[in-house]
């Protein structure tokens, strides 16, 4: 529920108390930490596990972490993981069947939804969650497992004060400042000896959480500093995408020669769909134990880049690399608008960073727009 926001200041030295309060409220904290040379979202227990001092460098097909003297907790942009991992897990058991004599007893896999606090959600990621809500909750068929996880999630967002080399959320109007959909929003300032957070409540839960922390009222100057810091990140955007008339121009370029050109580079590995925070395609797999005593059905993430994804009796309807790349980009930027009334891209730039050959969605869309 949206409430009148309260804006407060929390000293960095008091930041670990946020973890204490979340634990007292029974939340499992999911937050950023460094693993395998990347910032990933995982269960964490203390502020010491946050990527303090780490920042990322991103460009086409390139991601590097560096450690500097600036001791900010949220100085990175984002890594390969998105919050979709916890709201719409990569693998979800659907049911299990157990042989009992001459019959099978079938039991649905209802593990329940954990009570989780997502710490460090960026504005583009909030937009991605809203898109997933539109797809999975507001259509004729509701994903009940997603709904349960979504209802049990507390969202602590972080405003971006720097942009990554592949970010273009400003073009998509999804950032870099968080607007809604959060319980608590943080803006971190770490310059010289000053290190503090401007904290803004966005819901009754957020206000209640804020009331349990040792905060002080924010001054008008400190509130204005938030806008200045976010504006700086906007000017740093590494990419742009013109969305005016985008759908119509892509439809006109459906037979563009550009699709075959990009297919000459594309490995159809599916990395872009796996790191994308809005892709929702899945497949269902079934299996049995070797003894024949058990059978199971599991839902797993899938990708439109695999030939089997579009397989219909007799073969794949998108057998070529270029047709699969075209399907992905057209769905993300054009078909999605017809289906759900909005673009399916939030401008996070992950697909550019984590493409092994550095294919840039913004460049490819622009090329199709200009080449018929």
- Average the pLDDT over all residues and give the rounded result: 93
Oligomer: single chain
Shape: globular
For the report, how would you describe the main beta sheet? 8 strands, mixed
Number of helices: 13
Q: DSSP strand (E) fraction?
A: 25-35%
Distance between the termini: 47 Å
Are there runs of 5+ residues with pLDDT below 50, and where? none
> Taking strands numbered 1, 2, ... along the chain, how are they ordered across the largest sheet?
3-2-8-9-10-11-1-12
Counted beta strands: 16
Question: Quick gist of this model?
Answer:
This protein is an alpha+beta fold and 372 residues long. It has helices spanning 16-24, 84-87, 123-136, 144-151, 169-172, 204-211, 220-235, 246-252, 258-263, 271-275, 321-340, 350-353, 361-370; strands spanning 7-11, 28-35, 38-43, 54-59, 62-67, 91-100, 103-108, 116-121, 153-158, 184-191, 194-201, 216-217, 282-288, 294-301, 311-312, 315-316.
Question: What does it look like?
Answer:
The protein is α+β, with helices and mostly antiparallel strands and 372 residues long. The chain is 31% helix and 26% strand. The chain contains 13 helices and 16 strands. It has an 8-stranded mixed sheet, sandwiched between helices. A hairpin with a 2-residue loop joins strand 6 and strand 7. Helix 8 runs antiparallel to helix 11 and helix 8 packs across helix 13. It is globular, with a radius of gyration of 22 Å. It starts with 6 loop residues before the first strand and ends with a helix. The model has no long low-confidence stretch (mean pLDDT 93).
């Amino acid at each position: 529920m949206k409430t009148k926001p309260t804006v407060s200041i929390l000293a960095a030295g008091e930041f670990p108390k946020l973890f204490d309060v979340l634990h007292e409220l029974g939340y499992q904290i999911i937050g950023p930490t460094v693993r395998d040379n990347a910032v990933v979202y995982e269960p964490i227990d203390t502020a010491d596990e946050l990527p303090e001092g780490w920042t990322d460098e991103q460009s086409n097909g390139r991601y590097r972490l560096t450690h500097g003297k600036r001791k900010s907790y949220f100085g990175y942009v984002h890594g390969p993981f998105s919050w979709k991992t916890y709201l719409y897990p990569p693998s979800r058991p659907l049911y299990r069947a157990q042989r009992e004599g001459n019959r099978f007893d079938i039991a649905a896999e209802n593990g329940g939804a954990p009570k989780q606090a997502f710490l460090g959600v960026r504005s583009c990621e909030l937009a991605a969650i809203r898109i997933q809500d539109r797809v999975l909750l507001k259509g004729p068929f509701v994903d009940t497992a997603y709904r349960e996880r979504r209802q049990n999630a507390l969202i602590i967002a972080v405003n971006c004060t720097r942009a990554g080399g592949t970010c273009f959320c400003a073009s998509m109007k999804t950032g870099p400042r968080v607007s809604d959909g959060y319980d608590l929003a943080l803006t971190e300032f770490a310059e010289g000896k000053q290190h503090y957070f401007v904290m803004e409540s966005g819901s009754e839960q957020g206000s209640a959480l804020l009331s349990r922390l040792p905060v002080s009222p924010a001054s008008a100057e400190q509130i204005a500093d938030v806008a200045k810091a976010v504006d700086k990140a906007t000017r740093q955007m590494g990419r742009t995408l013109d969305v005016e008339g985008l759908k119509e121009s892509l439809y006109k370029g459906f037979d563009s020669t550009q699709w075959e050109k990009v297919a000459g580079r594309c490995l159809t590995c599916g990395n872009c769909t796996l790191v994308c925070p809005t892709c929702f395609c899945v497949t269902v797999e079934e299996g049995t134990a070797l003894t024949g005593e058990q059978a199971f059905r599991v839902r797993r993430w899938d990708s439109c880049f695999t030939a089997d994804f579009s397989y219909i009796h007799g073969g794949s309807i998108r057998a070529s690399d270029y047709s699969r790349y075209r399907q992905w980009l057209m769905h993300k930027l054009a078909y999605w608008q017809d289906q759900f009334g909005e673009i399916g891209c939030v401008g996070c730039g992950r697909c550019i960073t984590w493409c092994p050959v550095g294919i840039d969605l913004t460049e490819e869309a622009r090329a199709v727009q200009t080449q018929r």
